């Protein structure tokens, strides 16, 4: 490539032509930005989809995907792909290493084991990046295979459409279970949402709850057009199915005291709330207009079922401030200040907001603190507090979901494995581990050197 740097006349011309193309490209970009008009909903949604796909290659996500493929590949046939055939023995070795140390988790693995797994991972990293875990058997199939081995009976496993349905449910359940986890958390929840394909599920209460949850995860990750798309489809379905029975919704949100009609209204209101919050975070004027319309529906629904909480006070504050109804805005802000969801700093700033509203001149802009980001923050805290109360294992067991205990044991194993794997295989800790192993004996150190090559 050295000829690019030889200052011959020929190469100077090449550089000149390249710079000319770059200049023309910049002019086109500038022209489009100035005169091309606003992007459409479809274009903005496509940008969010690209951002989501690019975020799926973080180290945390790849570690989690690696752990899942280890498990799902344990009962897979060689014929999935030539790449899988190449690495199948390595994956089987890792699966056996983890399984034989501790049936309840991977705490029994040594530092040397983790370094060995790390070496194997580096060897197959490109394969893990490119592989689709859904090409492998589902987690249920792994549990069924273990059952068949212990019982001696062959059990039929789902195929085709049944497999698509099952692994979509698995992805969505895992995204819900891990979203509040300190160990693997929101990046992994986003990955599971990315892998869920609601369009393959029949229209039902389960599907609408899955889409609502996906919408919430996308909202948290500031993928507002993706979130709006999920929630809008939910709203369309709910509007077309008014009065539908929603037993899982009552169970999940602990709305046992609500009638079915009230449960429908509650779920309807939450969808309008989150769509409004998404639209408020967008840049176009039309989005804010749509957001205010959504908030009006949310408040109307909430009043029907007698809800009175921090989210309602937040939305009321925002709407009253926009409409310059200062007295009502102050009353709502004072209620909001009593919320346990707010920190002491946030409460102090609400006091500042109240003083601002008292002295605000007509037509002045909203105060800097009580803005759309604060409203989004309150809504997120409220939703997370609801999710924290959900006992997913109990709900699944009450719904007679097979292998629920095994699913939750697998999640615990994921957490333990990934936490230790990331701890022992960071560049800093690899060096420390090498020093520690060298102190323990030359034999261990020699093994480690070979693994780190």
UniProtKB/TrEMBL annotation:
Q: Return the protein name.
A: Uncharacterized protein
Q: Cite the source lineage.
A: Bacteria, Pseudomonadati, Bacteroidota, Flavobacteriia, Flavobacteriales
């Amino acid at each position: 490539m050295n000829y690019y740097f030889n200052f011959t006349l020929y190469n100077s011309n090449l550089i000149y032509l390249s710079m000319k193309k770059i200049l023309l490209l910049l002019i086109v970009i500038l022209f489009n930005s100035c005169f091309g008009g606003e992007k459409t909903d479809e274009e903005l949604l496509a940008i969010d989809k690209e951002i989501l796909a690019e975020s799926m290659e973080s180290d945390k996500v790849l570690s989690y995907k690696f752990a899942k493929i280890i498990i799902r590949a344990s009962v897979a046939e060689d014929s999935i792909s030539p790449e899988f055939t190449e690495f199948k023995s390595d994956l089987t070795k890792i699966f056996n290493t983890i399984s034989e140390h501790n049936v309840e988790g991977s705490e029994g693995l040594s530092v040397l084991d983790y370094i060995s797994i790390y070496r194997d991972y580096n060897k197959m990293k490109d394969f893990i990046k490119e592989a689709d875990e859904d090409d492998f058997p589902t987690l249920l199939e792994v549990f069924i295979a273990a059952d068949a081995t212990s019982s001696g009976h062959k059990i039929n496993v789902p195929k085709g459409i049944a497999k698509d349905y099952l692994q979509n449910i698995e992805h969505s359940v895992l995204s819900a279970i891990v979203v509040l986890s300190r160990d693997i958390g929101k990046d992994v929840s986003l990955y599971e949402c990315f892998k869920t394909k609601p369009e393959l599920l029949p229209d039902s209460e389960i599907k609408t709850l899955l889409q609502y949850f996906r919408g919430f995860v996308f909202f948290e990750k500031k993928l507002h057009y993706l979130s709006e798309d999920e929630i809008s489809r939910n709203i369309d379905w709910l509007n077309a199915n008014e009065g539908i029975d929603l037993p899982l919704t009552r169970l999940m949100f602990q709305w046992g005291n609500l009638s079915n009609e009230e449960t429908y209204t509650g779920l309807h209101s939450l969808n309008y709330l989150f769509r409004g919050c998404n639209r408020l975070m967008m840049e176009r004027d039309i989005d804010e207009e749509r957001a205010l319309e959504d908030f009006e529906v949310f408040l109307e629904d909430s009043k029907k079922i007698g809800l009175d909480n921090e989210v309602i006070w937040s939305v009321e504050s925002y709407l009253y401030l926009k409409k310059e109804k200062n007295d009502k805005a102050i009353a709502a802000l004072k209620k909001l200040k009593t919320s346990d969801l707010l920190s002491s700093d946030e409460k102090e700033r609400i006091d500042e907001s109240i003083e601002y509203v008292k002295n605000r001149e007509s037509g002045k802009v909203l105060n800097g603190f009580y803005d759309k980001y604060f409203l989004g923050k309150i809504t997120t805290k409220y939703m997370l507090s609801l999710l924290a109360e959900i006992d997913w294992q109990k709900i699944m067991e009450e719904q007679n979901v097979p292998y629920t205990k095994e699913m939750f044991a697998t999640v615990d194993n994921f957490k333990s494995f990934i936490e230790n794997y990331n701890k022992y295989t960071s560049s800093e800790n690899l060096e420390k581990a090498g020093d520690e192993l060298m102190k323990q004996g030359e034999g261990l150190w020699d093994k480690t050197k070979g693994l780190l090559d």
